[in-house]
Every structure is written in structure tokens, then in C-alpha cells.
């Protein structure tokens, strides 16, 4: 337990929490991170990191360490999951890297967390505490107090809620719950040698089909292959937990090409990830308490931006707190003004892209024709997303 008032307390030691901690410390601000897990760790497997996040990590001085673990794919290919044919390609080569200043990266999410954790540990201004489950937060007007399950309590000038999709702290600001769309993800990793033939070491493959998609890419310097299978469960209903089982996954993908059905056999069966988001909200602040990352703007993973946006938030919030050292209220308002429209746009786009991927029949045929007509180096539609500067 900390004695005295802490300048900045971060609740949640995930990607968003550690990014903001590192960025604050680099602004010369003392920061204390509370994580409820037994250690700072990430569950799940692969993560795509677009250049909008890569540039933030470069500013924080950790992007080169990350590249030692990551894969820099040459392209992103959309594949028709039924016809087993390419639909369109986005080239990630020199033109892409020049335009956005950083490459597209794919990695194990544990590797990203380790790089952030190492940088935090090397900075004397960061204190990290695991096994600290924050169960209540008190708004004290010009301060905030976090109370933990074990009785520990911490008072801070600014409290940053980085406690993810199921954020308890969000309730202080807004009374809503995550909404499930009936889709569920299965994940899996395997040695790269065990997979072929579409899966090259240089591509992110996005297979799309009716109410389904399947993502494949290499991670860990190309030694490991990552797969994510997503489909809409016919048995989903709110409050019922038995939906989206592995048998449903197999049944839904039985319409897909033989190659995908073979890949499906390699998924982990013991855990599934139901898909949730929340509607965008314009207010993330209650006096000295502020939301970042999934606590503020959870989104569907269809455009692989949730972690990227949490990383952008982290730098943005730290910069505003650094620039307005004596006026945290103004800093929090400036952070919210800079971030809320952008993240709402990303949330809305993520949902819309899901509908685009999951089309059926003539809509899908039309989509494929539209996408086939674009050039692999037509980056203009991506500029707002990948070119954004915090
Ligand atoms: C299947 C899937 C694939 C995805 N793929 C991508 C991708 O390719 N690219 C991308 O950018 N995004 C992706 N995302 C989204 C990304 O994972 C999230 O947006 C990101 O992890 C959000 O980071 P965060 O730090 O806000 O929250 P989290 O990562 O959820 O971290 C929250 C942390 O807070 C801790 N915590 C929670 N409650 C408390 C408490 N009461 N007290 C103390 N600690 C607490 C948790 O233990 C956790 O460590 C994907 C998501 C899913 C589900």
C-alpha cells in the first residue's frame, strides 16, 4: 500500500494501463499501477499492430525492442472462405511504410506486454503491484481513492481506469453494460512448420464468408502461427451460457473450403471469446477519474484496433497531463476532447466492417467485385486510421 497521495494511479495493467504508465513516467510524473492478476500477463495469442500504434511505441522508445519479437508481414490478403480465392490485397511494403512511418506488425500479445513491462520496470517513477483487485473507487472531488479486495487503499490526484471491457470503474461515469452480438472467437497457435500451403510467413490472411471469418498470421519472429476463427452462433441468447460451442463452430464452418476446415482442427477448444462492444459515449471523466482503452471505448476486433487505440490513449493522456501539470481537470478534458470522436469513429467502423465481412449471397458477390477493383496500394481510405498522429 502506498503512503500519502499518489500523483497518478492506474487501475489495470494491460496494454492500455502499461502504455499510459510508461508515457507518464517519461513526462517525469510518478505513477502507480494496480493489476488484479497474480502477475502482469496477457491471455490469448496474436495481435495485429497497425502503424498508428507503432508510431506511438516509437515515441516511447520501445518499438525496436518489439520488432525483435514481431513479424512484419508483406501484405494483408482478403480471401473468400467458400471459394478459396483471393478477393483483394493491401500491400505493406515500402510505399506503406514510407506513408505511415512504421510497418504493420503482428506479434504475440504477451511479447508486447513484456516489452512495455520491461520499460516500466526500468523507470524509477513507475511502481507496479499485482494481486491488487480494485473493488471500489471513491470520487473525492480533487482526488480519488481506490479500494482493493484485500483492504488496501490508495489515494491519488488522478485515477486512470484501464480495467478493460468489463470495467467496474466505468460505472462511475456511465451506466451501461457490454453488448454481445452473438459472435464468438476461437483462437489457436501452432508451430509454423505444421501449417501450409496458403499460410506463408509474409501474409496476414483474412478469410471472409457468411457470418464467419478466419484470420491467420505468423508471430514470434515467424516461428509460431496464429489463427482466429469467428462465427455467429445460432443458439445465442442473452443470459444463456451454453451457446457457441465447438460443435457449432465445426457445423458453421462446414460450408467453408476444405483448407479452412483442416485449419479449424488446430484451434484451441478449451476457451472461447464471445464478441462484445459498447456504444460510444462522449464523457469519460468524473472529476479526477478518467477512462482509457477498452474501459472507455471497447470495440469489435474486426479491424484490429482495440489495443492500438488504447496505446494512442496512453500517450495522449500523458501528454496532456504533462502539458498542464498544475491543472489536471483541464488536462483530462483536453484528452477527452482529442480522443472521444476518433475512438467513436473507430468503434463504429469496426462494427460496420464486421457486417461487410460477414455478407452472404449477392451482397457478398458485389462486395468481392468492389474490393477486387481497388489497387493493392490504394492507401487513401486508410489514412484517417493509420495516419493519425497523437
Ligand atoms: C479475439 C480478439 C482479438 C483481438 N485482436 C486485436 C488486434 O489484432 N489488434 C488490436 O489492436 N486489438 C485487438 N483486440 C482488442 C484488444 O485485445 C483490446 O482492445 C485491448 O486488450 C484493450 O486493452 P486494455 O488495456 O484497455 O484492456 P485489457 O487488455 O482488458 O486490460 C485490462 C487489465 O485490467 C485488469 N483489471 C481488470 N479489472 C481490474 C480491477 N478491478 N483491479 C485491478 N485490475 C483490473 C485486467 O486484469 C487486465 O490486465 C482483440 C480482441 C479480441 C477479443
Provide a quick synopsis of the model.
It contains eleven helices and 17 strands. With 390 residues, the protein is an alpha/beta fold. A hairpin with a 4-residue loop joins strand 8 and strand 9.
Helix/strand/pairing class, anyone? Answer: alpha/beta
Low-pLDDT stretches: none
CATH architecture of the domain at 6-43 and 109-177 and 278-356: 3-Layer(bba) Sandwich
> Biggest sheet, in brief?
8 strands, mixed
Task: Give me the CATH fold name of the domain at 6-43 and 109-177 and 278-356.
Answer: FAD/NAD(P)-binding domain
CATH superfamily of the domain at 6-43 and 109-177 and 278-356: FAD/NAD(P)-binding domain
Termini Cα gap:
34 Å
Fraction in helix: 25-40%
Contiguous helical run count:
11
Number of strands: 17
Describe the structure.
The chain has helices at residues 15-26, 51-59, 63-67, 94-100, 109-121, 246-253, 258-264, 306-323, 328-357, 361-372, 383-386, and strands at 6-11, 31-34, 46-49, 75-80, 85-91, 105-108, 126-129, 134-139, 144-148, 153-161, 179-191, 203-209, 212-219, 224-232, 273-277, 285-286, 289-291. By secondary structure, it is of the alpha/beta class. The protein has a domain at 6-43 and 109-177 and 278-356: FAD/NAD(P)-binding domain (3-Layer(bba) Sandwich). Strands 1, 2, 7, 8, 9, 10, 16 and 17 form an eight-stranded mixed sheet that branches. The protein has a seven-stranded mixed sheet with strand order 5-4-12-13-14-11-15, with helices on both faces. A hairpin with a 4-residue loop joins β9 and β10. The radius of gyration is 21 Å and the shape is globular. The mean pLDDT is 95.
Amino acid at each position: 500500500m502506498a503512503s500519502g497521495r499518489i500523483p497518478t494511479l492506474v487501475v489495470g495493467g494491460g496494454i492500455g494501463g502499461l502504455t499510459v504508465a510508461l508515457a507518464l513516467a517519461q513526462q517525469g510524473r510518478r505513477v502507480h499501477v494496480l493489476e488484479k492478476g497474480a502477475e502482469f500477463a496477457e491471455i490469448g495469442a496474436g495481435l495485429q499492430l497497425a502503424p498508428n500504434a507503432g508510431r506511438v511505441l516509437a515515441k516511447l522508445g520501445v518499438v525496436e525492442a518489439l520488432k525483435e519479437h514481431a513479424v512484419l508481414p508483406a501484405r494483408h490478403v482478403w480471401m473468400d472462405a467458400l471459394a478459396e480465392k483471393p478477393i483483394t490485397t493491401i500491400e505493406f511494403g515500402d510505399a506503406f511504410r514510407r506513408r505511415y512511418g512504421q510497418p504493420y506488425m503482428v506479434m504475440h500479445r504477451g511479447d508486447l506486454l513484456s516489452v512495455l513491462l520491461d520499460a516500466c520496470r526500468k523507470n524509477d517513477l513507475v511502481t507496479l503491484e499485482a494481486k491488487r483487485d480494485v473493488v471500489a473507487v471513491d470520487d473525492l472531488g480533487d482526488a480519488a481513492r481506490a479500494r482493493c479486495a484485500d483492504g488496501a487503499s490508495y489515494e491519488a490526484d488522478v485515477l486512470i481506469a484501464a480495467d478493460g471491457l468489463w470495467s467496474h470503474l466505468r460505472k462511475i461515469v456511465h451506466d451501461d453494460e457490454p453488448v454481445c452480438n452473438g459472435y464468438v472467437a476461437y483462437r489457436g497457435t501452432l508451430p509454423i512448420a505444421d501449417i501450409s500451403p496458403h499460410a506463408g510467413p509474409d501474409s496476414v490472411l483474412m478469410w471472409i464468408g457468411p457470418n464467419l471469418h478466419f484470420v491467420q498470421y505468423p508471430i514470434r519472429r515467424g516461428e509460431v502461427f496464429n489463427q482466429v476463427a469467428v462465427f455467429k452462433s445460432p443458439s445465442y441468447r442473452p443470459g444463456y451460457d451454453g451457446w457457441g460451442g465447438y460443435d457449432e463452430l465445426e457445423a458453421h464452418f462446414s460450408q467453408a473450403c476444405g483448407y479452412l476446415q483442416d485449419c479449424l482442427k488446430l484451434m484451441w477448444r478449451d476457451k472461447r471469446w464471445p464478441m462484445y462492444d459498447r456504444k460510444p459515449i462522449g464523457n469519460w471523466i468524473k472529476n479526477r477519474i478518467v477512462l482509457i482503452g477498452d474501459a472507455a471505448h471497447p470495440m469489435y476486433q474486426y479491424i484490429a484496433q482495440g489495443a492500438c487505440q488504447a496505446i494512442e490513449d496512453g500517450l495522449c493522456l500523458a501528454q496532456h497531463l504533462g502539458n498542464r501539470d498544475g491543472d489536471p481537470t483541464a488536462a483530462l478534458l483536453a484528452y477527452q476532447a482529442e480522443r472521444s470522436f476518433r475512438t467513436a469513429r473507430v468503434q463504429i467502423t469496426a462494427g460496420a466492417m464486421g457486417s461487410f465481412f460477414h455478407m452472404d449471397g449477392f451482397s457478398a458477390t458485389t462486395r468481392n467485385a468492389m474490393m477486387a477493383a481497388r489497387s493493392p496500394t490504394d492507401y487513401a481510405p486508410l489514412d484517417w486510421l493509420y495516419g493519425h498522429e497523437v
